[in-house]
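queue> holo job accepted (nickel (II) ion)
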Amino acid sequence: MAEGAGEPAGGLTLEEMKSAAAEAGFDPELVERAAALVPHGASESVLERLIGGPLRVEQAISFPKELDEDAAVRLLSAVRSEAGRRGTGESSAVGMSWHSESEMDVVLVNAHAEANSTRVVASIDRHTGLLLTALGAAGGILASFLAAIGVAGETTISPYLVLGSGIAGSLALARAFWATSTRRVRKELDILIRTIDRSLRSGSAERPAVREALPKANLAEKLSQISEHWTPRLAARVNDTDVKLVKLQGDFVWHRHEHEDELFLVLQGRLLMQFRDREEWVEEGEYILVPRGVEHRPVAPEEVHVLLVEPSGTLNTGDVRSERTVDVVEPI
Ligand code: NI
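queue> job finished
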């Protein structure tokens, strides 16, 4: 479809469609106009407006520490494992780059050392995805056109109505598809950026203050400082794993963590851990592991005190955003 609607679409070229339209007694111009609605060959901003979402999403972060060979290797392996897709990459003392291509999009992560800092840019390019979306829309429009020819002269239904609603429907479907995939792509990029941030922090001299300030601590004393429910606090960071303390009461939201296992150790009270196919009561002194990817919902009919063990950067509501989402876990 790169050359516009002159390319074969479902076996018909635009010229063939127009002559078929003329034979059926339609205005061939209508076909031309319908074909022009399919987003291709236009400028990117027009495409983005038409399809209702960006063709390329990008996020960049700067980290106040110069990249060294060690950090570059660590960063590359973190991106590899987090991206959950095959890709190629390389790292050196001055930078790192990783690249992955799928049917729908191209993911790029580049890091390079700047004076006293590291700049990382991650982007997802979706031109292939757009082309597939456009082809889908074009197919829908072609089908509407054929349907319009089908009803011409045989019923009292206006073929223009059939064609018009077919075109509108095809475009609406394409836009809905694009909006959904835009959300997916943004989420993917968010996760990547969080991983990158985490990876750059680990091994860095700029550890969270909690690391230096924690020669010894007392659970009861720490818990007494927590008054809010469902707001985890960072007790300690062990390499790339966080140990958090949280008080729960009531129902949480259903969610899953795509890449993180979570361990819940019940310090006081009892916790009901619901899964889609079963539920488990976790009593005081017991612990439960929620593997990555498994949907779960913690429920606490009465207040329960929990110690959580999970990778740094794990979001408490996983793949869901709600008023319970805590983006920044404060040290305690
Ligand atoms: Ni969870």
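queue> The chain has three domains: 4-53+127-196, 57-122, 210-311.
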